[in-house]
């Protein structure tokens, strides 16, 4: 790829324009993602162990009465599903990353947990009225396009039993304040993006009218030039409530964020919601 192509990727970026590569299915990067997920002390890939346990107890205490069958969309390596299974739920998980699903299956087997894991795109999930609780955690909903969000909500409503609940977290208006426009670069002998030497050109760009933030990474090594793009939508409370109601959910509620703590800037940008069928 020529220099003009690099310049093109850094200027006049159309909303939800696609990059040239997807990191979730890259063999090397997916292993780095799995390492980040499994680090119990950081919030990089998933929330840290203490937050995960606190959140799972909150789900059980607030939504577990009379509800046992639970599905985790975007379950990663099964950190929530395994914790919830130990709390008494019939857990299942779906994720697009084969490496994460294989790890989740191996862990469940070693721990003697009966958890149904499936490697697939959750937007393609069939069936109806099978689940008591569906969860979508770590703001996965926000990375979907508007059409995908609508399809996701329709699917979740379809697979929930009457009286079932959908629990999710999304970024709020504080997210745009945290994610300022920026351009940075790095050179590394080896790191997250590549096993060998590479250069990474990073860009963060806000689209305030559309309430969207772009994180873009142009990774250059001796043989490749790849562009990874991550679009993140944030929501005001009124928007989220309206969106849930438009797709049939009732009694939607803002559950705030029980994980917020002094000095935790990221959790300040996140709000939990629960919506019922």
Tell me the overall shape: globular
Tally the helices.
8
Q: Report the portion of residues in β strands.
A: 25-35%
Count of DSSP strands: 11
Low-confidence stretches: none
Helix/strand class: alpha/beta
Distance between the termini: 50 Å
Q: Would you list the SSEs in sequence order as H and E? A: HHHEHEHEEHEHEEEEHEE
Helix content: 25-40%
Oligomer status: single chain
Could you report the average pLDDT, rounded to the nearest whole number? 94
Cα radius of gyration in angstroms: 19 Å
Q: Reading side by side through the largest sheet, how are the strands ordered?
A: 3-2-1-4-5-11-10
Biggest sheet record: 7 strands, mixed
Task: Describe this protein's structure.
- The chain is an alpha/beta fold.
- 31% of the residues lie in helices and 30% in strands.
- It is built from eight helices and eleven strands.
- The strands form two sheets. Strands 3-2-1-4-5-11-10 form a seven-stranded mixed β-sheet, with helices on both faces. A four-stranded antiparallel β-sheet has the order 6-7-8-9, with helices on one face.
- A hairpin with a 4-residue loop joins β7 and β8.
- α3 packs across α4.
- The radius of gyration is 19 Å and the shape is globular.
- The protein starts with a helix and ends with a strand.
Characteristic terms for this protein:
seven-stranded mixed β-sheet, 277 residues, alpha/beta, globular
Secondary-structure blueprint:
Blueprint (H helix, E strand, L loop, with lengths): L2 H8 L16 H12 L10 H15 L5 E5 L5 H8 L3 E6 L2 H14 L4 E4 L11 E6 L9 H14 E12 L2 H5 L3 E7 L9 E10 L4 E9 L4 E9 L3 H10 L3 E7 L13 E7 L1
Helix pairs in contact: 3-4
